[in-house]
Design brief:
By secondary structure, the chain is mostly helical. Helix content is 66%, strand content 0%.
């Protein structure tokens, strides 16, 4: 039997590794972004801020959440669109000609069924859609923080130029906000489309994101 720590790693190694990489890259972003921000403040003749002050600045908040926003939009859209749209041959899609287990009616008597399934009613109805609800909720939160952070950074730039600050809603109406959002959104949907199509013909042995290496091209799901 494996030691407790190794059992935890074996069962959760993917999430632990991904979240550790997230923390490392976020730390690097903070440190590098702080230096960039200090240079911008010096150029504009404004007082420098310490690292804690940078974390609440529009520069950091805008840059961080405009990326999170597009990621959660991408994941939420993929989860929702794959409910009723298909791509024959892709493991990211359901088979249009087969009954899929994800479409079966939830059975409260199934061993190990989560408690919302056993509760039934509205609780079960919400739980049936909870993944999409959570992802689109995170998208909306990130979108709003992008707007708030963007308004703060845009206002700082305007104040340095002797112009008045803007509110979050005023920033929402600027071309700059939509340029920032669309350059991220389009790239996210491009990456999803590329993944869906490449997995029809290409393989990665051992990955659940790929079909088995010897699976026919038209095999779906």
């Amino acid at each position: 039997m494996l030691p407790p720590m190794l059992r935890v790693w074996r069962a959760n190694g993917l999430s632990i590794t991904v979240l550790a990489l997230f923390a490392v890259f976020l730390l690097i972003q903070v440190l590098a972004g702080h230096r960039v921000y200090l240079d911008q403040l010096a150029t504009d003749g404004m007082a420098p801020v310490d690292l804690a002050g940078y974390l609440t600045s529009g520069h950091f908040v805008e840059a961080t959440f405009e990326n999170w926003e597009s990621e959660f939009l991408q994941m939420g859209a993929l989860v929702l669109l794959t409910v009723f749209l298909y791509q024959r041959g892709s493991p990211e899609s359901k088979d249009p000609d087969a009954d899929e287990s994800v479409d079966r009616e939830p059975d409260p008597a199934r061993p190990g069924a989560p408690w919302p399934v056993r509760a039934g009613g509205v609780v079960r109805a919400v739980y049936e859609r909870s993944l999409a609800i959570a992802l689109f909720g995170l998208f909306l939160v990130s979108l709003w923080l992008h707007v708030v952070g963007g308004a703060g950074e845009y206002s700082r730039e305007r104040l340095a130029a002797g112009e008045p600050a803007v509110t979050a809603f005023e920033f929402l109406a600027t071309p700059g906000f939509w340029f920032q959002s669309m350059q991220n959104w389009q790239s996210e949907f491009l990456s999803v489309g590329v993944l869906v199509l490449l997995t029809v013909v290409l393989r990665q042995r051992g990955s659940p994101e790929s079909k088995p290496v010897d699976e026919p091209l038209e095999s779906t799901g």
